[in-house]
Every structure is written in C-alpha cells, then in structure tokens.
Design brief:
Tachylectin-2, Chain A, 5-stranded mixed beta sheet, binds beta-D-fructofuranose
C-alpha cells in the first residue's frame, strides 16, 4: 500500500519529466528523473536487471526531504526510470529516507535497507536529526516498509556513538547465508567510524564490532561505507566529510577515501595497509559498488561535490540537477585502486578517428576530433626523449568563449584539470591538480565526455579526475597544445546511447 506522499511524488515525476528533452540531459550517465539527485543507493542486480536507486527530491533542483528515485538498466548505460521507490512518509522517516543498499532475499523479494531520519527538538532547544536504520521489501517496483522499523537505533550502538550521525547501511550476504552490513557513525572523539552489524535473516540485526576507526585521520564523519574483496585484498570505501588535504591527496573537503588492507573473517578484523583518494578531480562522492553477474566489481559515484553543487548552475532555471559517474570497473595493481570505464561503453562507440605519431608544438586542431559525447584516448610522449617537453594540454568543450582543459607538466609531474572557462559564473573551485608520475613525459589519458561532464582516466586508470561542466553544447571543439615538441597518438569515438 503506497502512501499519499509516494503517490504524489510518482505523479509529479511522471508529469514533469516530459518537460525535459533527451538532449538536455547526459546521454549514457544516469541523471535524476526530475528535480534533485545525490548519492547512488541500492545498487544491485535483481530479476535480470541492474537496479540503481538514488537520493531524490523531485520537487526542486535543491536538496529536500529525501525520497529514493529508481532506474533499471541492462548494461549500466541505457537507463529506464521506474516510479520513485521510497518517500518520507512514516513516523520514523518523516524527514528523509537517506542512503542505503539493496539485496535479493532467498524468497525472491528485494530488500532495501536505508537510513530513516526524524528531526527532533532537543530539551535544551535547537533541532537534531535522529538517524536509524530501516527496511523495505518489494518486487523491484513497489516496496513495503517493514512493520518493525527501525531495525537499528540508539539501543544498538556502542557506548559513546552518535545517534545523530548514524547512516548509510551497505549490506551483503555471506557464503553461509547470513547477512552483514556496515554503517557510518561518529564515536565520542567526534571523527568517524564504521560499524559492523550482522543478521540471520536480513531483518533482525545485531551490533557486532567497530570495523574501522578514523581517529581524526581523514576528515570527520565517515559517510556511505562500502566493504568488499578485490583481487585478494579487502577494500573499505567511505566518503569522509571535512577532510584536510594531505600532499596531493584529499583535496576535496568531502571526497572519497579508499582503504586497502586485509580482512580476517573469523575475528572480523580489518587491517589497513594503504590509503588513497578515489577521484582526483572535483566532482565525485558517495560511491557504491556491485559485483556483476560475471564477477566484476563495478563502482558508481554521485558526480558532484557538496561544496559546489548549489552554486554550479542557475538552478532556478533548470528542471534537473544531479548525475552519476560512469560505472567503473575496479581492480588493484601495485597495491593501488585502479578504475576503468565499464567495458560495455565500447559498444556505444561510433566513427573511429585515429591519428598516429602526430608531432607538434604550439596549438593544433585535428580534422574530425571534436564532440561533447566522446571516448578519446591520447598517448603523449616527447618527440625527442633527450628534450622532454615543458607542457602538454588538451582543451575541449571549446569555442571562442569557452574551454575546459587537462594539462601536464612533466618536470613537476602534475596533471591539472581546469574548468574556469567552462561557462560558470561562480568563483567556486574550478581546478584540481594531481601528482602523475611519468618517464620522460610519457602519459596516457582516456577522456570520456557526456554533454555535462568530463572523466579523465590516467595511465590505464591509476588515477581518475572527474568534473562536471555545464558549457553550452555548441562548444564542441578540441585542440591540443604543446610547449616543446610532443609526439601524440589519438583515437576518438563518438558515443551514442540513444
Ligand atoms: C552523503 C549523504 C549521506 C546521506 C545522504 C542524504 O552525500 O550526506 O550520508 O545519507 O547524503 O541525502
């Protein structure tokens, strides 16, 4: 039985989505059906399709009381919207259905676990959000909230843990058929921790252990955890709020942290060995992963940044705001997290244009190299290895007024993305630098553009830099610049999902 609140949201989104033309959205990245989108939720494979839910406020292009939007896909690139799945409509989630995850139950139903938010007035005055974990069960379209919600609340928390910052359950089923989930929380030291809970049936949950502790190393509250095996290691992804930059890591204030280590399942002990940023660009947060039926670990993140999302566009004039990143296949190489666009993307390629051994300095254009929905691979090196070039740049989404650029300085080993001239009227963060090591200036870049974004995969996915750009679509030029002689191979494809 759906509530009035959910019925209204479903009616509203169906009517309003018609006012958005297909070419006003990204083509193969999922964007919100209408209104506002943030985190990916409930990323799962169910009844033969990928399901992706998302933090959703249909009625405005600003964050508001959270619903769950819903879309399905067979290849993670062509998406079909389904009706909104959850609305804030019960006494325990009246102020929002926050992030969570999904799993298939042995009886064939789909179980969603999410954070219920209830704003309460404190005895000493002021208001705080109480956060609890809740469940809804359904058939892939309609979901019924569990009568015993919330399933985890204040009484399940270890001593000193916050009841106000307790959110974003990510669940999985173990080999033995029992269930686990990790949830973000704040301990007494005010930073972050990840709590592990277990359940026999997916409904009745018990606290097991503090799985990981921030101890004020990486920002404060740890949001949106994900925990999985990858290439013989164990990975904890989490998105800390309020991070300090450290060298070339963690420049985003709110960004995503990857901890790689080992996991002893007997004692539930996670031992950290390595930490790094997940994305070195500007817009990436709160990712979730899935294990695909053919065994790949694929990650999708919210392609935005909390610090700039409310200023980036003239929001009042728009009907949608919020997109997901390209789904990325994960692997571990040399102890680091690597990311590659999912291989299904290659099926969207059309019209190959290829250049080999282009040697130049100054600015050049190449016939047929342009576009705003493209997959372009560049191999850049010095024409003469004895004389390494000073700087290389590729500029795209370019016309007489606008451009976004990626540039590399081999002597500093710094790669920079710069969208200052992308058409933004706001003095927000528009540049990000990343340390990219190279030998004699040799680097590989794979650039994916989809109308309103650029994702740059560096050196086979060792690093990724992501930025949204809202430049007018007529700006579709691409040019190359070199200070010093550069040798370059280029292959470019148009990408079209439609
Ligand atoms: C992360 C986040 C989550 C929360 C959701 C609310 O971006 O703050 O922690 O569940 O967004 O929309």
């Amino acid at each position: 039985m759906s509530s009035q609140t959910l019925r209204e949201a479903r009616k509203y989104e169906e009517a309003t989505e018609k006012m958005i033309q297909a070419d006003e959205r990204p083509d193969f990245h999922l964007s919100t059906r209408v209104g506002w989108m943030n985190d990916p939720n409930g990323f799962s494979f169910y009844n033969g399709k990928y399901h992706l839910f998302y933090q959703y406020y249909p009625y405005a292009t600003y964050w508001g009381p959270m619903h769950w939007g819903h879309a399905v896909s067979e290849d993670l690139l062509h998406w079909e919207y389904l009706p909104a799945a959850l609305a804030p409509d019960t006494p325990y989630d009246r102020d929002g259905c926050f992030s969570g995850s999904a799993i298939e139950l042995p009886d064939g139903r789909q179980l969603l676990m999410y954070t219920g938010v209830l704003t309460t007035t404190l005895p000493e005055g002021g208001k705080r959000d109480i956060q609890t974990q809740c469940i809804a069960v359904g058939d892939g379209v309609d979901y019924e909230k569990y009568e015993k919600n919330p399933v985890l609340d204040a009484k399940d928390l270890p001593e000193g843990s916050s009841i106000y910052d307790f959110r974003d359950p990510k669940l999985w089923r173990k080999q033995d058929g029992t269930y686990c989930c990790v949830v973000g929380n704040r301990p007494a030291d005010g930073s972050g921790q990840i709590l592990l809970f277990t359940s026999q049936d997916g409904f009745d949950w018990k606290f097991k252990k503090v799985l990981a502790e921030n101890r004020n190393r990486f920002g404060k509250m740890w949001e949106c955890p994900d925990f999985f095996q990858l290439d013989g290691k164990q990975v904890l992804l989490t998105s800390p709020q309020d991070m300090f930059p450290q060298g070339f890591e963690y420049h985003n204030g709110n960004g995503t942290l990857c901890l790689i280590g080992t996991y002893d399942e007997e004692t539930d002990t996670f031992t950290e060995e390595h930490d790094q940023s997940v994305d070195y660009g500007i817009d990436f947060y709160a990712p979730q992963t899935i294990l695909t039926p053919d065994g790949r670990r694929v990650m999708i993140g919210w392609m935005q940044n909390w610090d700039t999302c409310n200023m980036h566009r003239q929001l009042d004039e728009e009907l949608w705001f919020g997109q997901m990143s390209i789904p990325r296949e994960l692997s571990i190489r040399d102890g680091r997290l690597y990311q590659q666009p999912i291989r299904e993307l290659e099926q969207l390629r059309r019209g190959e244009v290829r250049y080999e051994d282009v040697c130049f300095d100054g600015t050049i254009n190449l016939d047929g190299i342009k576009g705003r929905r493209i997959d372009m691979e560049l191999e850049v090196s010095s024409e003469d290895e004895e004389k390494v070039y000073q700087r290389f740049a590729v500029r795209f989404a370019q016309n007489a007024d606008y451009q976004t650029s990626i540039s590399y300085r081999p002597y500093e080993e710094v790669l920079k993305i710069d969208r200052k001239f992308s058409g933004s009227r706001r003095a927000i963060i528009h540049q990000r630098r990343s340390k990219v090591l190279s030998e004699k200036g040799k680097i590989k870049l794979r650039i994916i553009l989809d109308r309103f974004s650029a994702e740059v995969f560096v050196n086979d996915g060792r690093q990724v830099m992501t930025a949204t750009i809202y430049t007018e679509q007529a700006a579709d030029g691409i040019s190359f610049f070199a200070d010093g002689r550069v040798r370059m191979n280029v292959v470019k494809y148009e990408l079209a999902a439609g």
